[in-house]
Amino acid sequence: MVAAEEQERIPRNFITDIIDNDLKNGRTDHVATRFPPEPNGYLHIGHAKSICLNFGLARDYGGTCNLRFDDTNPVKEDMEYIKSIERDVRWLGFNWQDPIRHSSDYFDRLYGYALELIDKGLAYVDELSPDEIREYRGTLKEPGRNSPYRDRSPQENRELFEKMRRGEFAEGTACLRAKIDMASPFICMRDPVIYRVRFAQHALTGDKWCIYPMYDFTHCISDAIEGITHSICTLEFQDNRRLYDWVLDHISIEARPHQYEMSRLNLEYSLTSKRKLNLLVEKGIVDGWDDPRLTTISGLRRRGYTPASIREFCRRIGVTKQENTVEMSALESCLREDLNAHAPRAMAVLHPLKVVIDNFGSEGVTATEFTVPNHPEHPEMGSRIVTISKEIYIDAADFREEANKQYKRLKLGAEVRLRHSYIIKAVSCDKDENGNVVLVHAEAVPNSAGANVENHKPKGVIHFVNAQDCLRATVNLYAPLFTDPNPGAAEDFMAVVNPESKTVLADAALEKSLADAKPGQAYQFEREGYFCADSKAFAAGKLEFNLTVALRENKKAAA
Ligand code: ATP
Ligand code: MG
């Protein structure tokens, strides 16, 4: 285990530099981080970057990482999301410091800190409407204007805030604002709203509250309450760091967390906005949040991604302040490396064409079972039995009546090796009325099963399954979900959805051993790619496989 941990250690970056300095200078003697998802959607590959960093730092520095649900917006949150997030974090291979935290655990204390600000003359109840607040806020070029309610006395503000809490103000008619500076060059410092009225059931606090604290007020205080030392977020919160510090400077709380910002992960051909992902799900463009075409964690899992490949990807992209977009191939190659090393091999014929071995059963062509390794380089992964009979299926693309010398598969008059089995030669073929080949007659070379035979040197190897005992299954092939590599930037991301992102092969033929396939476990279908059993179909008792990733970048494996 130590070796694996060493291997996965986060490579040095500006945040590890900061931590090293803090430890050296004595600002802190330990590392405490947190991962703070808002439970308003499923986690995606961007969150994986944040998870690997926050939990990874805790691991590398012998510290702790909390899982904290940032549940300050009762309207958008849902238990389904909470459960999915816990599962995804665990599946990625991380454990949080018990217990799970929620911003809502701190609602009482947050309320107390709001009163403290009020009493210090640093917060006031504003009765401007949301539109007026926006208008008074000014712009990047023009300073804001003070609200006419800004100079109420602490006494009056306390009474009004308590009134808010009792539900005596309708939504949008009153809010609590921090009294900072309406002329600040940072708009987030122009008297930000820190509490608003929302008559909504909260997943955990029920109807105890009808006022809810805003993110900027909640996050810094939650970090301080939990003793977080390094609070890492994405760059769009850079300006808000001033507010983060302002709040902690003005309330009576001892701990002093610091916020650091890194660039978000943007991945080609994928969306990392929960709002947009939600639309794809709601409109039925994809089959749920775990559709194998989505780069949600649950989609990647259903697609056959391994946790190790996602962690390795996050290690490789690194942590910086530069905005960039990572190519899909970077993620896929981490997966391919992992699966090449660890995925069991199997044979599957995606476009079955029947071949009859006419001399099957005659002398030297009687072996019907072969014991073959599950992985060519890992004997410890065991072996399985591959069977053959007079009738087999090969892929339609592996046979041609005539072809030049480059074609190393089966053609009339030429020999090819069946993977793990006999050498066969095609002798004739039958066609339907449209001229499509529907059956190939072949002859096996006697005693060639898994052995060399003098004067028979086939140039190629093709895979096959036994027509008598193979499994019939649906196989889903996938292409990118979007036609535009940057769908998030498209004016209408729905307009760049790829109508051909999924191809269903309804009648693939799989070797018998795949009856035991467990969903999530990817196999290398020899010469075809990596595939895994679909969890939803599996739960419904159906055998259905998803393309996980092609054998090679950008092209389907050929010859
Ligand atoms: P949205 O704005 O779409 O609702 P979010 O990005 O704010 O989502 P959160 O649930 O608040 O999502 O995110 C939890 C944590 O994950 C935050 O610390 C956030 O900075 C981080 N995170 C989210 N998306 C990315 C990303 N693409 N790259 C890196 N970190 C991310
Ligand atoms: Mg957020």
Sequence-ordered SSE layout with sheet pairings:
Layout: H1 2-8, H2 14-25, E1 32-35, H3 45-60, E2 64-69, H4 79-91, E3 101-102, H5 107-119, E4 123-126, H6 130-136, H7 154-165, E5 175-178, E6 193-197, E7 211-213, H8 215-225, E8 230-234, H9 241-250, E9 258-262, E10 266-267, H10 274-282, H11 297-303, H12 307-317, E11 325-326, H13 328-342, E12 345-346, E13 348-349, E14 352-357, E15 369-373, E16 383-387, E17 391-395, E18 399-400, E19 410-411, E20 415-418, E21 423-431, E22 437-444, E23 461-462, E24 465-466, E25 471-478, E26 502-510, E27 522-525, E28 529-533, H14 535-539, E29 544-549
Parallel strand pairs: 1-2, 2-3, 8-9, 10-11, 12-27, 14-22, 18-19, 20-23, 25-29
Antiparallel strand pairs: 4-5, 5-6, 6-7, 13-26, 14-17, 15-16, 17-24, 20-21, 21-22, 25-26, 27-28, 28-29
Helix pairs in contact: 3-12, 8-9, 12-13
Strand content: 15-25%
What is the fold named in CATH at topology level of one domain?
Glutamyl-tRNA Synthetase, domain 2
CATH superfamily of one domain: Glutamyl-trna Synthetase, Domain 2
> Could you give the order of strands across the largest sheet?
12-27-28-29-25-26-13
Q: Indicate the overall shape.
A: elongated
Structural class, by secondary structure, is alpha/beta
Percent in helix: 25-40%
Distinct compounds present:
adenosine-5'-triphosphate, magnesium ion
Task: Write down the CATH class of one domain.
Answer: Mainly Alpha
